[in-house]
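Standup notes, protein team

Yesterday: finished cleaning the Pseudoduganella lutea set.
Today: PAS domain S-box protein structure.
Blockers: none.

Input for PAS domain S-box protein:
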Amino acid sequence: MTAPTPSHPGIHSSARPDEAGRLALLHALQLLDSAPEPVFDRVTRLASRLLGAPIALFSLVDRDRQWFKSRVGTELAETPRNISFCTHAIAQREPLVINDAQHDPRFADNPLVREGLKFRFYIGVPIRSQEGHAIGTLCALDTRPRELTPDELAAFEDLAGIVADEVRRREQLGRARAHLQEADAAMRGTEARLFSIFKLASFGIALIDANTGNWLTVNAAACAILGYSEEEFRRLTFRQITHPDDVADDLALVRDLVAGRITQFERQKRYIRRDGSTVWVHTNVSLKSDETGRPEYFIVAVIDIQARKTAEHDLAALHAQLEARVEDRTRELVEANHHLTEAIGRQQQAEAALRAREAELSSILENANDVYIGIDAHGHVTAWNRQAERTFGWTAQEAAGRALDELIIPIGLREQHRRGMARYRASGQATVLGKRLELPAVRRDGSALTVEIRIHATEIDGQLTFSAFLHDISARKLAEAQREHDIRHDPLTGLLNRRALEELLPQAQARSQRHGLAFAVLFIDLDGFKAVNDRHGHDAGDALLVEVGRRLRASVRQNDSVVRLAGDEFIVVLEGQAYTMAQARTVAAKLIAELARPVALAKDAADDPDMVQVGASIGIALHAAADTPAPGDLLREADRQMYLAKEAGRGSIRPAGAETGD
Ligand SMILES: Nc1nc2c(ncn2[C@@H]2O[C@H](COP(=O)(O)OP(=O)(O)OP(=O)(O)O)[C@@H](O)[C@H]2O)c(=O)[nH]1
C-alpha cells in the first residue's frame, strides 16, 4: 500500500483530520465496490437534470482512489485519488464550486482539465457521517464553464442532504449491527464460560427438577463427590440420596424457597454416596422460575466438606483428649500442690520447732551449771558457755577458735591430749568418748582444779564436733580425800588407825612374801598414862598421846607404819628388810627409850610447863616371809607378847632375847 500522494500543493494526507477514522467508517459502511442502488441513482439522475450537467456522481473517496457508488454520464467506475476534485471538496466544510478549472490555478494542470473531456466546471458537496467524517461527495461536472444561481446551489445541497441522510441511516444500521454482533459474541463467550465453569468447577453443580425432585444435570465434580454417573443421577431424586436425618430440614427449606420466603439457602448436610458411605457437604440452593413465576429447577452448588468434618471430628476428639489430660494433670498438680503445701507446712513447723529447740538448747547450754565446751576436729574451741567462763576465767570471746589444750589442759597432759585427738581423726577410735572421767585441769590464772568430764563426738554434715560437759569437782575431791584420810587415821595423833592397820597388815604380808623379807609387828602400850590423865587432866593426856605419836613416827623409817590402835595402845610395823626378832627388839628398845623421855605439857604460856613422863611395854610378833597367818593372829600374838611384857614389868619387851635364843 502506498502513501496517498497529494493531488495539489498544500493538501497532505497528514493534514487531513482523522483520515484513518474516516477510512474506517467508509469501509464499515460497506458501500465501496457494492452494487448500484436506486436510492443513490435517483439522486444523481436528479442532480444531473437539475444542473443540466452531463455528469453527476456519488463519489466515495477511498485511500488511493475515488469510487463512484452512483454515476450518470460516465462509464468510469473510479479514478485515482490524486487527480480527483472530490478530494479537495471533502477537505472543506462548504461545497467546492469550480466555475472554470482552466482559469483556476489549483486545477489548471489537472489531467482531467487538460486531457480527455477537459472538464471546466465542478460542484462537490461533502457527504458527512454522523460523526462528521466526509466520506465522499455528491458532485456534478461539465465541460463548459458556468456559474450556478443560489437556487441551483441550494437545490444541489438538498440533494446532497438526501444522500447524506441515507449514508447516516446506513451508518446507524451498521453501528446497530456491530452492537448486535458484539452482544452476540459476548453472549456466546458468557455461555461458553458458564459451560466451562459448570464442567470444570471444582465444586459440584447440579440442577434438580423443581416438580419431581429428580436430578436433571450434574457436573463432573458432583459426580465425583457423590459417586454416581450422570446417567445414574438422572434416575434419582435428591431425596433418595439425602441422609434420612437431613431430609426433613431440606424439605422445609425447599418449601420456604418455593413459597418465596427466602431466595436461597445454605446448609451442611449428608448425602449417601453410591458405595453406601456418608459424605458431608456444604450446599447452596437457589430456585430458577420461568417468566410466569412457575418453579422450574433448583440450582444446587455442592462442596465436599467431609475432610473438614473428619478433621473437625478428629480435632474435637483431640480436644476432648487434651482437656481430659489437662484435667488429669491439673488434678495431679492440685494434689501435688496440696501435698507440697502440707509438706512445706510440716517442714515449717519442724523448722520452727527446731529453731525453738535450738534456742532452748543453747539457752540450756548457756545457762547450764555445767561447763559446756564445743571443739572441732582440730581441737579448736567452737562453743564456750557462761559456766566455762566462770570456771576457767576465759571469756567466750577469748576462747573462741583457740586450741583447747592451751586453755584448760595442764602442760604435762597437753601432748597426750593432742595425740588422742590425732588418733581419733585417723581411726575414729577414742578411749575417752562417752565416759565419765575425772581429769586435772588448769584455770587462766594457773590454778589447778579437777573436773568431771564427759565427751561426745558428733558428725554433722561431715564435720566432726566434740561436745564436752564438765564441772569442777575439786571441792568434792578434797572432801573425799579428807574422808578417806579420816577413815584411816586417828583424829588425835594423825597416825593410822585400827582400820588402816587391818588393811595394812595383809599388804605387808603380801610384800613380805613377794620380797622374801620378814616383818615385825610391835604392840606398844604406855605405862602410867592413866596417872597423867588423872593428875593433869584429859587434855594433857591428849597432848601426851600426840607427842607419843610424833616420837614414834620420828623414830622409825618412812616405810614403817605407825598406828594408834586405841587409847594408849600403838602398833609399829617394821618393814623393808629381813627383820629378825633381835632387830625388832632393838627398835623396840629404842622406842621405849624415846617414849621415856619427859614430855613438857604447856598449861599456859606464862606458866612453866608440867613435865610428865610415861613408859611403854612392847610385845613383838615376827612374820616370816614364808608364814601365812591371818593378820588377826599376828596382831593377837603381838598383843599377847605385850601383856607378857606388862607382866614382866613396866618397860619390858617380849619375847625376851632368852626366849627366842638371840
Ligand atoms: N587423855 C586421854 N586418855 C585416854 C584416852 N584413851 C584412853 N585414855 C585413858 O587411858 C587410861 C589407860 O588405862 P591404863 O592402860 O590402865 O593406863 P596405865 O596407867 O598406863 O596402866 P597400864 O597400862 O596398866 O600400865 C585410861 O584411864 C583411859 O581412860 C585418850 O584418848 N585421852
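Follow-up from PR in the comments: DSSP finds 20 helices and 23 strands in the chain.
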